[in-house]
Give the backbone structure.
Amino acid sequence: MCLVFAMRFLFVHQNFPGQFPHIVRLLASRRENLVVAIGEEANLLNRPRLHPKVEVKAYKPHGGSRPETHHYLRDTESAVRRGQSVARVAIELKKSGFFPDVVVGHPAWGETLFLKDVFPRARHVSYFEFFYRSEGGDVGFDPEFPEVFDDRFRIRIKNTVQLLSLDAADTGLSPTTWQKSRFPREYQQKINVIHEGIDTGKIRPDSGAVAEVDGVRLKRGDRVVTFLSRNLEPYRGFHVFMRSLPLIQRRCPDAHVVIVGADGVSYGRRLPEGQNYRTRYTAEVEDKVDWSKVHFTGRVPYDRYLSLLQVSMAHVYLTYPFVLSWSMLESMAAGCALVGSATAPVEEVITHGENGVLVDFFGVERLADAVADVLDNPGSYEPMRRRARQTVVERYDLHSVCLPAMLDFLGGS
């Protein structure tokens, strides 16, 4: 008996499932759909299967950029090589009889560069996360890391793969309105704003939540300050937060500060070999901080991460004008009192005094004052906590808002 599938989907992401786990599971759960994915071999190792019906094909990039390649072009050369590797896997899929109706991919690393040529009749959907510019965004924002004029030339070339992807895509997705606005005006009509979604059923306040750090048992109602980032780096305001610690402790000496994140660099400049930003900024405030009350956890399992949000009394989220982190929305869903930077990605979600507190990104004293006020007057911030969660429920809830919108957009029945 030959099975006939109503819709065939191909998802492509070097770190599959990337931004797509929820929609992939939903599409695969529909009996009439066939879902195949392509991801980078190294990132798929030891990763549990997302769904029994999702077949994941691995590719291995064949080399990166060469030292003699002009430094403007090194990212582009790596992207072309990666695109070729993915295209080879796609051609084998085609030979096996798989012809997707819809191809969904993240174009930033070049993986989708040639898929339009392999599957010309498919509908190609690209996830457009961020378009780099020399003004109005991350570049040149922080005077501590000033741009050089050469950066402007480099950034123009850095967008080469994005521009090719914008041209090849039939349509696109962007998670926030501000992120969409960064793309060239001529292409914005192609881009739809649909966030990946926050599971507010799972991520919610818990009055009984408990988290242990360094042998200290923290519970809801304790004076706990949290700061979370995949990597502790300036793009997410780690340097500003560290400089606020002496002031926060002066105002609230009994508070426990929990800092979650690894020592790598996701975005921005890397330090010389063997150095990291945690060590650099810890040393800067070394003798001004009571380190017995400051807890660096590194990266933590998701359940522990959620418990930390649920016991947090004041959660700090700072970011350059850049991609908005899931963690900010998750902290709001968990009922945190959010103290955030008055930067465009945050201001799209937070109205100062309504569902969070906004401070100037570089305003160390104002940040410390805001955190201390939350700790000193927790009861007065309860309405703000509730409105923060309601914002996420109404605008970003996974099951009632984002998945239905994504399903309708992709046409997965």
Notes: The chain is about 35% helix and 20% strand. The chain has two domains: 7-197+398-410, 210-396. Residues 239 and 281 are 6 Å apart (CA to CA). The two ends are 23 Å apart (CA to CA).
